[in-house]
Design brief:
alpha/beta, Methyltransferase, Methionine Synthase (B12-binding Domains), Chain A, domain 1, Rossmann fold, 5-stranded parallel sheet, 9 helices, 5 strands, binds CO-5-methoxybenzimidazolylcobamide
């Protein structure tokens, strides 16, 4: 089955056949959501499990991650739709010391789909770069992603830097990433936490509409 082949090729980090299969699935009218959830995200879950158990190592995981990001680019037009009205700007990035960008990229796509103009600062972003981006773009929402227990504390560093710059009351701050919890978000003074990309878009919208 096509979705299984997509999953297998992503697990093995084979970008070329993976992209061809994703294109084939789209041309066969398989929903982008199905390709994403059943083909790509579940495969990254398998890679993550193998990584944890020392069955695969950083180079293999990196190959899968690169293939995943390329596949997401293919899905982007289908996931973001063409929302006519912009409801506000969102600045997003993965915090300093953290290279993980797949989840952040997915959240960015969902925000675009929800009608945000997204300024994506990338991964391994210094607190000061977030401050500068908030000053320059005046976004309604600032999104901070962290995938490591060793980098989630950087979300607090960014929030403190935003406070020190006198910008805290000008922007709503949303945090997320695998080790981040609602409790942690509250503790560090974020306005919101989201566990996944779909709810991140809905939460960001609520933050803006409810503001
Ligand atoms: Co890394 N890594 N990694 N890794 N890696 C994890 C996170 C890990 C859980 C693997 C494991 O041990 N099972 C583990 C962290 C353990 C911990 O901290 N407790 C780990 C480790 C240890 C490391 C290194 C330290 C390994 C090493 O070098 N020894 C190293 C650190 C490098 C660094 O960042 N400084 C490292 C490196 C890497 C690669 C570079 C090889 C690669 C990243 C490449 C890239 O992103 N371009 C990588 C990968 C791919 C993973 C796993 C396998 C997959 C992550 C992923 O993309 N998932 C991961 C294991 C796992 O998660 N199962 C792992 C898919 C993605 C869609 O999900 O990112 O969770 P996720 O995003 C979700 C939600 O979290 C949420 O929505 C997203 C979509 O639903 N979300 C938000 C994310 N950000 C959000 C922001 C929001 C809201 C929601 O608001 C703003």
């Amino acid at each position: 089955m096509l979705i299984d082949e997509i999953s297998q090729n992503l697990q093995k980090g084979r970008a070329k056949p993976l992209l061809a299969l994703v294109e084939q699935a789209l041309s066969e009218d398989i929903a982008a959501d199905t390709i994403l959830n059943d083909g790509l995200l579940s495969a990254m879950g398998v890679v993550g499990e193998k990584f944890k158990n020392n069955e695969v190592f950083v180079p293999e995981v990196l190959r899968s991650a690169r293939a995943m990001n390329q596949a997401l680019e293919l899905l982007k037009p289908y996931l973001t739709g063409n929302s006519a009205n912009t409801i506000g700007k969102a600045v997003i990035g993965t915090v300093k010391g953290d290279q993980h960008d797949i989840g952040k990229n997915l959240v960015a796509m969902m925000l675009i789909g929800a009608g945000f103009e997204v300024i994506d600062l990338g991964a391994n972003v210094e607190a000061e770069a977030f401050v500068q981006a908030v000053r320059e773009h005046e976004p309604a929402v600032l999104g901070l992603s962290a995938l490591l227990t060793t980098t989630m504390g950087q979300q607090k560093v960014v929030i403190e830097a935003i406070k020190e710059a006198g910008l805290r009351d000008k922007v709503k701050i949303m945090v997320g990433g695998a080790p981040v919890t609602q409790e942690f978000a509250q503790k560090i003074g974020a306005d919101a936490f989201s566990a996944d990309a779909g709810s991140a878009a809905a939460t960001a919208k609520d933050l803006v509409v409810g503001a």
